[in-house]
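The instructor's notes for this session suggest beginning with a concrete chain rather than abstract definitions. Hand out the sequence below and ask the class to guess, before any prediction is shown, which regions might be ordered.
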Amino acid sequence: MAAATTTHTRTAWIRHLCDGSRTPGTALPTRAVEQDYVLLHPDQLCEELRLRSRTDGTEVLVQGRDSDERLVVEFWSNVVGSGPADSAADLLEQHCADRHFGTLRRFRTRIRREITTGARYSAAVQQTYVQDGARMVDVTVTCTLGGDVLAQAWATYALPN
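After discussion, reveal the predicted structure:
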């Protein structure tokens, strides 16, 4: 089983798995691009997942299941195509990962404009709690340039014991 490596962000790995379900894009659409990554079993991310996708032409939902049909990962976007929002999601996730240790469980993004050089990031812990016996933390990240919000992300991590 070829597991996801740490040299790529989890969001990039999930989109790699979903490549056949999305069309290439070149620019951000006029509305904000939203993406939602849910990692139910992050230790099971691999190339062998069975993927099922649904699209209505304006949004896409891709679910990855293991050989036992257990839902491992889910990806949703309000945009069917790939493009600059994907790079922005990677930058936001990397900013979170550099500051918050743990296993990523959920990552939601809202990309309003492309992230450019000179953009500033701010992150804040929103809450810590216990869920199903695991210590969890919710984090928000905002990316701004000249006072304008370019992108936002909301991450949930399972903290190490």
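Then share the key points. The longest strand covers residues 120-131. Residues 84-99 form the longest helix (16 residues).
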